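Hi Prof. W.,

I finally got the histidine kinase prediction working! I wasn't sure whether to trim anything, so I left the full sequence exactly as given:
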Amino acid sequence: MKLLAATTRYYLRLTVGLFALASGLLYLGFDWALRNEVEELLYNRQLHIQKQVARGLALPAPAFADNLDRSRRPQPLGFSDTLLLDPVEDELVPYRQLTFRLPPAKAASAPEWVTLRKSLVETEDVLGVVVGVLVVVLALLLGGVVALNHWLARRLWAPFQHTLATLRGYDLQRHQPLALPTPTIDEFGELNQALNTLSERLVRDYESLRQFTENAAHETQTPLAIIQAKLEQLLQAPALQDDEQLATLVGDAWSGTQRLSRLHQSLTLLTRLENHQFAPAQAVPVQLDQLLRDRVALLEPLLEARQVLLTLHADPPLPPLVLHPGLADSLLQNLLHNAIKHNHPGGRVDVLLNRRMLEISNTGPALTGDPAQFFERFRKHNAASDSPGLGLSIAQHICAYYGFGIEYAFTQVGNRHTLRVQFT
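And this is what came out:
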């Protein structure tokens, strides 16, 4: 819900509540005042009649027959409400009446009970006019509140909307901090100042991290390559042919440097993915089916060594995907390597590619644990494996980078492990 809608809703609730309370109090107040005025009028007429009777005069003739009623039978005394039929309009009309006992003028005469009445039609008309006026005032008030909020949203909240639009279009890879202006509203000015300071710090940290990543990738990869080359030369030295123990130690050192080199490359790739250091301009249309066939061809020796059968099903023609070529190749490589490494001799790998998804299914032993943890860094299903355990994590980060969905499923029938990448 937008802020304007939320504030307007609270304003309307408060206004309607206060209006309802004020309307009720005003209605009750008007009703009490008008009835009190009618009762005072009836009471004055009672005093006037009693004075006339005390002087021995006859009762005054009422203006209308319904305004005065005399009875020899006892009647309830005091004020009360009643309804009388109006013969002209043929409808019941509310009256306020006052009944009192009139003592006889002569001692031998019997007392009588006099009822004075006053129509309340005028009172109801006045109340109707008051309620109508209140309804009109409510409509004008609510309309004014809504119009005022919209005007405030366009005028007073314009700096906030500008700040929000700037934040949505901000790209940290441009290495430029935010340059938000200082509006006249103090709160918005403080917000923009804090965002400017935050963006400057982000640019500095991002630049430092980018330089560290590039320097680390360059400065550590070169010594590793030199160590690997020297160890390869040492393994071919004639002196090691006669010393089996020394040859084993050098071979273990060479394997360790290879593993360290792969770990270094994987962590560098993950860092660049997390920091969005792959520029969108580097993405090009990639024919994923052709890249997949090329990758499968390169893996033929590994498939034969592990005695794994791979079948590829690609629906032609497939539209190209706009990806970074290196990331696309890394995605396929990690998924295929994962399916081959966690297989068993005589197993199968089935690859399905269409315009909606890439699905890689392989046989293999059942795995234990939470499937969501399989994408964590350094998560190994086999502790003795020389793999760093970053393949699925890299695949997940590449999918997240391009907005793809990736999920894992296991089917007990045939012990099938399935990794599915959803393009759409």
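The chain has a mean pLDDT of 78. Does that look reasonable to you?

Thanks,
D.
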